[in-house]
Amino acid sequence: MNNCTHKHFIIYKPYNFLSQFVNNQTKRTNKKLLGDLFDFPVNTMAIGRLDEKSEGLLLLTTDGKISEFIRSNLVEKEYYVQVDGAINEDAIGKLKTGVIINVDGNSYKTKPCKASIVKDLPSFPERSKKTRDQRHGPTSWVSITLKEGKFRQVRKMTANIGFPTLRLIRVRIGNIKLDKMKSGEVLEINDLLKVIKHEIN
Strand 55-61 to strand 165-173: parallel, antiparallel, or no bridges (unpaired)? Predict the structure, then answer.
């Protein structure tokens, strides 16, 4: 993959932004788009998507081949998920082995994945719309790492086990981490494939 003429970006997608450059949702015209964050070059595309209410790590590129590779099941995607309720190891075990979700009107069992309760939570930026607080009952955080990406998969998985998602942040793609990026921050990198190349092995 020769990407010397291509541009690549790492961004922290904020809450309430679409992971796209053109609003194809005709019901509302005031959606916030990726182009509102930075003057990206022509033909820049998001590598996969985070839904509007999700936040965190999103990779962008002008190289379709690199996009296809990163979206494949060769590259892990890790999410930190705040859920409604005090989640337990039994529920975590269900996530690990796979749960039934609805995909395009059909039942689908998710592939086995990595999942764990997060005890030492990083300091994430405040979200523009706050999640509910502990006065309305306990919440907890879990880490879920997938190599697949069905539409709203993580949200559907936690709902299936009785712990609806309150906040969802993607923290890692391959070995690229969100770390201490600020919401809305954009970083340009020279060689996106080189950064994650160990995932090929």
Answer: parallel
pLDDT > 50? residue 2 = no
**Rounded to an integer, what distance in angstroms lies between the CA atom of residue 19 and that of residue 106?**
25
195's tokens? 């950064």
pLDDT in tens, 127-168: 888 887 666 789 999 999 999 999 999 999 999 999 999 999
Average pLDDT over residues 36-58: 95
Active site residue 51: yes
Alpha carbons 16 and 14: distance in angstroms, whole number: 6
Helix axes 89-97, 153-160, angle to 10 degrees: 130
pTM: 0.90
Rounded to an integer, what is the distance from CA 93 to the centroid of its chain?
Answer: 21
Regarding whether 152 and 100 lie in a shared domain, the answer is: yes
Catalytic residue among 36, 51, 90, 133: 51
- What is the domain extent for residue 13? 8-73+175-200
Q: Looking at the structure, do residues 52 and 118 belong to the same domain, yes or no? A: no
- Taken as a whole, the chain contains a residue count of 201
CB 115 within 8 A of CB 157: no
